[in-house]
Every structure is written in structure tokens, then in C-alpha cells.
Amino acid sequence: MKKNPLWKVLNGIGLLILITIFALPFVWMISTSFKTLGETMVFPPKWIPDTLLWENFSKAWNSGPFLKYFFNSTIVALGILVLQFLTIIPAAYAFARYKFKGSNFFFGVTMVTLMIPTQLIFLPVYLQMSAWGLLDSLWALILPFASSAFGIFLLRQSFKQVPEELLEAARLDQASEWQIIMRIMVPMAKPVLITFAMFSFIAHWNDYFWPLVMTTTDASRTLPLGISKLREVDGGVAWNILMAGNLILVVPILFVFFFAQRQIIRAFVYTGVK
What we know:
Strand content: under 5%
CATH superfamily of the largest domain: MetI-like
CATH class of the largest domain: Mainly Alpha
Mean pLDDT: 85
CATH topology of the largest domain: MetI-like fold
Shape: globular
CATH architecture of the largest domain: Orthogonal Bundle
Low-confidence stretches: none
Helix content: over 70%
Largest sheet: none
Number of strands: 0
Oligomer: single chain
């Protein structure tokens, strides 16, 4: 059945409007990051600056120990991701392929944790980190996120789609459960793992609240906190420097998405949640 040409036009217009709504703030950030301070105050606003001021980025970078912030953000985001993989893969496999006493209950409890905001539990976690002497350290930013209920859910749905006959054949060949996980389940769930890795990396790379609560010195602070300090200027906000700093924050995320986008599409098209 062919679609009405008018419907195609309206659908295209609707998509264009949505793309414009979501892309406009990003385009504005890029434009502002190259402007002079005076151009950021002009009304109506200028979308294309007269001169591209690349020194805005050097000013933002040199306004604090940004190399340290960048290093901390990288360690935290990747450290969390490694620990999450170590916990969610075996957990998802157990929930997907085994029926043990209380399995549905424990999976339900895992799903309930998705409804609990991080801000709601930060106080007991803060006290626990304090008792362990980990405050103002990268461990305080990594350990509370060592697992992910969302990751367990995604992987469980993916693992459930693997035919049981394939696993039985592997067991007949004397493959251990760990070999089955690493040689069969993980490769088949690769698009889902990459999708989850991207979501996790972006979430913790951009996290502002947790580093703000858990750290007190620049030695352990991350890039979002460093960017926020660009607002702390006398006489107003230098929006061009602030936007340059935000662009520095966003660039690694764009690289992650660029390299992972094909796997993300595969995850949702071929192995998406049913």
C-alpha cells in the first residue's frame, strides 16, 4: 500500500522541525564558542561571528587544571564501564538462561532500582564512602556505579534470544559456562554491549551531581565541574568562553557516538527489546 504523497510531505516537514529543535542549541553553542564577548550580547543574535576566535578554547582550557579534569573524567567513565561489564554480563546470563529459586523476584528487585533516582540514595552512599575513607577520590565516583540494572535488563533480553540448541551443542563439546558466555553470548550481544557502553560513558562523562557531592579538591574533580567554574567570573558570564568549554566537554561524546552509531542501529533493529 502506497502512502499518500501529502502524508510524505507532512512527515518530512515534521522530521525537519524535530531536527531543528534538537540541533538548534548545539549549533548555537558552536557559534557562540567562536564569538567575541560583545557578539554574544547582540540582539538580534548573530549566528555567524565576524571572526572565528580560536583563542576562546585556549582561554577555557587554561582557566584551570583542565588536563587533570579531562584525565579524571576519562578514568571515571572507563572505570565504571569496566566494572559494569564484569557485573552485568554474568548477572544477565544467569537471569536469561537459568531458572533458580527466587529468580523472578530478584530480577524484579533489580528492575525496581531503575525507578530510584541517584539523588535519593546519595546520603547513605556518601556515609559509606566516608567510612571507607574514599571521599575526594576517584574510587568514590566509580564504585557506586559498579553495576547497572539497565545494562542487566538490556543484556538479559539479548541473551534470551540466543537459541538453547546452540548452548547445548557447546556443552556437548565440553565448553564451560564461562566459555559459553565469552565465546557465544558476548559476541552475539556485541551491538547491545556497545550501545550500553555508549549510554554509560555519556551518562558518567556528563555527570555533575555525583562529583560535586563526593569531591572537594581539583585533584579528584571531573570536567563538568571544571566547566561550571567558568561561570564564576566577576561582572557577568563570559558566554563565549563558557560555550568553548562546553564544546570541549562534548567533543569526546561525539567521537564515541560516531564510532558506535552503526552498532547502535544494529542493536535496536536486529536485537532490540521485544
